[in-house]
Structure formats: C-alpha cells, structure tokens
Amino acid sequence: MTRACNFSAGPAALPEEVLVQAQSELLDWGHTGASVMELSHRGRDFMALAAESEQDLRDLMGIPDHYRVLFLQGGATQHFAQIPMNFAAPDQVADYIVTGAWGEKAVREAMPYVQARIAATSVDKHFTRIPPRDAWSLDPRARYVHYTPNETIHGVEFQEVPEVGDVPLIADMSSDILSRPLDVSKFGMIYAGAQKNIGASGLVVVIVRDDLLERCPDSIARIFSYAEHAAGHSLFNTPNTFGWYLASLVFKWLKREGGLAVIGERNRAKANRLYGVIDGSGFYSNPVEPSARSWMNVPFFLPRVELEAPFLAEAGAAGLIGLKGHRALGGMRASLYNAVTMESVETLVDFMTDFARRHG
Ligand SMILES: *Cc1c(COP(=O)(O)O)cnc(C)c1O
C-alpha cells in the first residue's frame, strides 16, 4: 500500500492516524461488538460520542456557552438556503459579501427566501482580492451579513474577521474552519461542510448563537429549523453517525497535535513555502493579491496551457494527486488542509521546481 501526497480540494486528505484508528475500530467500536455505523444514534454509546465530540470542538475553538453546536446534513449548499429560511423572510433584506464562486452560490440559493443584496463583490477583479471594507455598502436593515472567509476555488481568504456592527455575521467556513485560532464571539453563525477540514462529506457543523435561534419561524418544516435541531441535540432525525464519528476522531487528533495555535502556525508555514516557490519561480503564477491569499487553497498557473496535461501526468506518477484546478478557473490548485503535512508540501515544491527546470 502506498498513500499519495493528496492535495485534493474536497473531499480531501484526512490524517493518517485517524484513518488507521477508524480501520481498527471498524468491526468492533468501543467494545460494543459492532461498528459505530451499526448502532442506534439514540443508544448510550453514540450519545456519549456526540457529547464528547461537541465538547472537544468547543475546547478547540473556544466556543462560548451561548452558542449551540449542531451536526447536520445537506452540505454547505443546503444551508445556503436554510439560513434565510431560518433568519429572514422573503420581504426582508440580507447582505452578502461575494469574493468568489461559493459566495455567488450562496446568493443564488438564498434568493427564494430573502432579498439577497450584494453589499460588496470583487467579481470585477476576477475574485483576486477582497473589496476594501470602506467600500462595502451594508444595509442597516439587513437581517444578517453573509460572507465566505475562504473561497476554495479562487484561493482568496480574509485574514481578519470583518467588522459589521450589530448585524449578525454569518460565515461559510467550509474550507477554513479549524485552520487557525478564531474568535467565535464575533459571529452570529458559522457553518462548514465536513469534507475539507473536518472529516467526510455528508456532515455539516453549525455553530449558532442562541439569540438567532429565537428567530427561526414555526412556518418552516421542522427538519429545516435550526431551533428544532438545537432542541433535539442534532438527533431530530438520524444523523450521519459515521461522519460524526470521523469528525470526533479528527477533533481528538487536533487536540493531540496541540490545538489551533499550533495548527495555524503549521498552515502558515506550508502556505508560505508554496507561495514562495511559485513567486520565485519565474514559471508558475498565482493571481491573488498577496494580502488575500488563502492558506488552504493555492491556485496556480503554468506559463502555457499545453504544459498542464504533462504536469498532471508527471505529478501523478510521482505520487502527487488532486492538483487539477477547478473547472471554473483552470490551471492547478494545491489544497493544504490540516491533514496535509509539510513533508507533502516539500515533495510538491521539489516536483514543481524540477518540472519548471525541465520545461522553463
Ligand atoms: C466545498 C464548499 C461548499 C460546498 O459544500 P457541499 O458540501 O458540496 O454543499 C460550500 N462552500 C465552500 C466555501 C466550500 O469550500
């Protein structure tokens, strides 16, 4: 068996320790005589896992007591629609900051449920920067402000949490949750699909402030209501138990590694290493303004499109996978989530340097 250096954007690399543990527990989890997949979500063992995983996430992120933590389904995409269903009405306004493709999708899915205003966008700059804060036109009547701290496709990341006054700030952190320390108290809600930095697809982690849950209307189906899921401790219906279990192993792994301050420094070093090689190569390029460059997703281009196929073929032969860029942007993309090691990044930059030398 050989494990590749995996730079996939999502679903993405998981820590090897986590996979080995999941493998070892697959037939008999916690002396239950069954896989975690085969047990009731309302049984004592799974309920204990649920409680412990929530506490581990609270410890890692420093989540204050007046926030609920939910483990839901539907992907981040379903929550693009569920957010306005819960926190607004079709005749009310919500502000969206659009810095890439995911922000655009969030607007599109919200439109049936709220007047989604684009309060700022960098579409005119091909999503290569973040619109300066003083140029945003926020509406004080907005029910919330939504943004995407890390745009996975365009490789654009906010380095600070934007100041939006008293309007609740809602963040789609699908591709940067747990990548560095964060002040959760600045947010009304944070949500993230699990398949980038948490675990497997089919699970969405939601962190929501109590006062926002009071807004959830009785008129929506209960399955869509965050208040209902909070009241039922994410067991309103059958959750993705195996996905939740994998997430719980990842949280334990993050704690063992030293928490988000350590992980954040590691992620900064990995990203700096790769951007340094790209910028210094005179061969590769990354179009994003340096102050907005993502630590998690690094799109890059070769000097000629004809080089892309040989680059990917040779990378694959060298055990480097997941480097093909998103179809919307072309080029290459290396995703450097928590589970991607510095050794993998070193292998990648060695390969890139050698490829540039041979084709430059
Ligand atoms: C991957 C991703 C999504 C989409 O997640 P799904 O689980 O496919 O719905 C949404 N937002 C961001 C920022 C992402 O990276």
What is the helical fraction, as a range of percent? Answer: 25-40%
Q: Which class of secondary structure composition applies to the elements?
A: alpha/beta
CATH topology of the largest domain: Aspartate Aminotransferase, domain 2
The number of E-state strands comes to 13
Radius of gyration: 21 Å
Top CATH class of the largest domain: Alpha Beta
What is the count of DSSP helices, taking H or I runs of 4+ residues? Answer: 10
End-to-end span in angstroms? 34 Å
Task: Describe, in plain words, how this protein is organized in 3D.
One of its GO terms (biological process) is L-serine biosynthetic process. It is found in: Cytoplasm. This protein has 360 residues and is an alpha/beta fold. It has 2 domains: 16-256, 3-Layer(aba) Sandwich (Aspartate Aminotransferase, domain 2), CATH 3.40.640.10; 259-359, Aspartate Aminotransferase, domain 1. It has 10 helices and 13 strands. The protein has a 7-stranded mixed beta sheet with strand order 2-10-9-8-5-3-4. A two-stranded parallel ribbon has the order 1-12. It has a two-stranded antiparallel ribbon with strand order 6-7. Helix 2 crosses helix 7. The mean pLDDT is 97. Bound molecules: pyridoxal-5'-phosphate. Pyridoxal-5'-phosphate binds at residues 10, 75-77, 102, 148, 152, 172, 174-175, 193, 196, 201.
Offer a few descriptive terms.
Aspartate Aminotransferase, domain 1; 7-stranded mixed β-sheet; 10 helices; binds pyridoxal-5'-phosphate; 2 domains; 360 residues; alpha/beta; globular; Aspartate Aminotransferase, domain 2
